[in-house]
Amino acid sequence: MSSLKQIYKTYIQAINDRNWALVISLVHPTVTWNQKPYPAEEYITLMTRATDPAPDLKFHIDILLAEDTDTAGEQIVSARLLIRGTPEKEFLGFRPTGKSVEVVEHVFYRFVEGRIKEVTTVIDMEGLREQMVDVPIFVR
């Protein structure tokens, strides 16, 4: 189990280092992200949508759980990630404000044969909106 956690930590560090070749080596040739399959290279493109606009953006593991799921050798990793950075360009649909942001992401990974095969994720977009938009959302 600890080796699965170590693989995941290596994966997160590779994203933080923008070491996309290492990330690709840790995923299957096709990765299903939120129920849609992507070739590994396109999966990387999804990640760069967040990392390119905020060059200092880093993923920090807040909670990490790993477990075997069945006799077929599939394993599950679930994590609560804190994503911190200062967007310099449009970031997930929001214009930059010059301020740093912290976004929470809850994510589940299905590992098959020791590599990531499926990713299901939810990002706290409302929390991001509160940090990226200068005008209050609810005005009374």
Automatic annotation (TrEMBL):
Pfam families: SnoaL (PF07366). GO terms for biological process: polyketide metabolic process. Coiled coil: none annotated. InterPro entries: Cyclase_SnoaL-like, NTF2-like_dom_sf. This is Uncharacterized protein.
